[in-house]
């Protein structure tokens, strides 16, 4: 099954505790690495910055207040509001991800060098992220291409990264390991965001400060990826039904087989559908929060950054706390409780008046508590529902709705803003995503799904 290590350890179940713990610690560092990009670039700075660039290209004034632009951009013959451009780009990236990532996952499952693949995708994504430094003036087209490319590379790296969780953690360890990874990510992303917050506070040229911050996130992502690439050993892939032909042919063959076989895992399929809905809501909140804070609630960029810093550092405690509760209550039950909190958070966001910063910070604190916990436990819970040897391909389906690849929520957000001229009505749709996801998740039989996938249920399901 697995390649022997230098200590003679073979297979997941036979890993010595110390050797397994060492690999887990190396694995955490990729959450630390990519969260700098996810936080500084994807969630906080690039969306409003590209919106400003697009607004300038449309011939409108650019400021930190509410949207005052009634002019549109022409994109491939279509009329697009500059205020909605980012949401459409994320939608496009997600549609492309749905086509590309399953093939990436199938290839990773057949590769004996998952860590090498992780590094390649991460370093390609960080290169695209670094080029965002050159998005200036009215060059929204360059920014659009780089955002889509970096998002695809991030998704590809996360497919491989999440699949490695099944190699380095036993079933009873995965909630804890996944939660610690998310906590490490929030800490790392928060530290770099704090540095960039300071940079934005002291530099008079705000646009240059944003561009430097974008570059710093790319460098951080690339540099810290070295640790998991060097610290996690590769394993011989496990394939009960190998496909003939080269890697590309075998990848598409395995993908087709997985899509056909998915009907044999109804609980896994049900969870994926539930996750598609509620994670679309989560991802849209992540992408839209900075734009919503600046353009709708009329806060300056520095104020929005401060709120995100609060989310990051409270998110560390939230992820670890949710992980501990899951050890006693089971991941599914804790996720469901988190979704109820999400509905309340979205409702509070709709009611938050413009320029009420204390209430905005309170809302950020609530998001921090629930954000990391629901995402970390979703990852570990899903890892229990997938068959051995096809982890990366199944995680590619999972990544279609993971960080930075939401499309239903962002599409709704963009369309509603373009039609109404306001972001507030779109929050009603986000609440619906959480409610539908919660209803579907309540129907998932966790123990049955784990055993159907051929896995051993953890002590607490």
Describe this structure in words.
- It is found in: Cell membrane.
- InterPro entries: Atg22-like (IPR024671), ATG22/LtaA_families (IPR050495), MFS_dom (IPR020846), MFS_trans_sf (IPR036259).
- Pfam families: ATG22 (PF11700).
- Residues 267-461 form the Major facilitator superfamily (MFS) profile domain.
- It is a multi-pass membrane protein.
- With 461 residues, this protein is an all-alpha fold.
- The chain has one domain (17-452): Up-down Bundle (Growth Hormone, Chain: A).
- The chain has helices spanning 17-57, 85-109, 114-131, 140-168, 174-202, 206-224, 226-231, 247-261, 266-296, 301-329, 331-351, 357-383, 391-399, 408-420, 426-441, 446-452; strands spanning 73-75, 78-80.
- Strands 1-2 form a two-stranded antiparallel sheet.
- A hairpin with a 2-residue loop joins strand 1 and strand 2 (78-80).
- Helix 1 packs across helix 9, helix 5 packs antiparallel against helix 6 (206-224) and helix 5 packs antiparallel against helix 12.
- It is globular.
- The protein starts with 16 loop residues before the first helix and ends in a 9-residue tail after the last helix.
- The relative contact order is 0.16.
Brief sketch in words of this structure:
The protein is mainly alpha-helical and 461 residues long. Helices cover 73% and strands 1% of the residues.
């Amino acid at each position: 099954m697995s390649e022997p290590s230098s200590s003679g350890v073979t297979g997941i179940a036979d890993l010595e505790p110390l050797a397994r713990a060492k690999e887990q610690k190396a694995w955490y560092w990729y959450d630390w690495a990519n969260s700098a990009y996810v936080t500084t670039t994807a969630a906080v700075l690039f969306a409003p910055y590209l919106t400003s660039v697009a607004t300038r290209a449309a011939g409108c004034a650019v400021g930190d207040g509410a949207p005052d632009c009634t002019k549109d951009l022409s994109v491939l013959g279509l009329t697009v509001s500059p205020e909605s451009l980012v949401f459409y780009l994320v939608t496009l990236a997600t549609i492309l991800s749905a086509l590309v990532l399953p093939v990436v996952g199938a290839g990773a499952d057949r590769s004996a060098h998952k860590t090498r693949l992780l590094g390649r995708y991460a370093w390609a994504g960080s290169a695209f992220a670094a080029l965002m430094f050159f998005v200036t003036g009215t060059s929204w087209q360059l920014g659009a291409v780089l955002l889509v490319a970096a998002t695809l590379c991030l998704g590809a790296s996360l497919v491989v990264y999440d699949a490695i969780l099944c190699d380095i953690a036993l079933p009873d360890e995965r909630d804890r390991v996944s939660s610690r990874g998310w906590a490490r990510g929030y800490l790392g992303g928060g530290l770099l965001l704090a540095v960039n917050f300071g940079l934005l506070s002291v530099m008079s040229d705000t646009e240059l400060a944003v561009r430097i911050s974008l570059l710093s996130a790319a460098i951080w992502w690339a540099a810290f990826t070295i640790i998991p690439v060097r610290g996690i050993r590769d394993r011989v892939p496990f394939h009960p039904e190998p496909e003939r032909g080269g890697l590309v042919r075998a990848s598409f063959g395995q993908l087709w087989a997985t899509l056909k076989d998915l009907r044999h895992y109804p609980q896994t399929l049900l969870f994926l559908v539930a996750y598609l809905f509620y994670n679309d809501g989560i991802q849209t909140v992540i992408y839209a929060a900075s734009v919503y804070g600046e353009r709708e609630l009329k806060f300056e960029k520095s104020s929005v950054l401060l709120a995100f810093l609060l989310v990051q550092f409270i998110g560390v405690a939230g992820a670890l706390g949710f992980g501990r509760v899951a050890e006693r209550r089971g991941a599914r039950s804790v996720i469901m409780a988190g979704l109820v909190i999400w509905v309340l958070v979205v409702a509070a966001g709709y009611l938050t008046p413009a320029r009420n910063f204390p209430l905005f910070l309170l809302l950020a604190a609530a998001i921090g508590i629930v954000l990391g916990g629901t995402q970390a436990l979703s990852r570990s819970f899903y890892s229990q529902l997938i068959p051995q040897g096809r982890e990366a391909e199944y995680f590619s389906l999972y990544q279609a709705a993971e960080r930075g690849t939401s499309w239903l929520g962002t599409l709704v957000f963009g369309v509603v803003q373009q039609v109404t001229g306001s972001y507030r009505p779109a929050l009603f749709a986000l609440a619906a995503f959480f409610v539908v996801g919660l209803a579907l998740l309540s129907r998932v039989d966790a123990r049955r799904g784990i055993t159907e996938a051929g896995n051993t249920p953890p002590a607490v399901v």
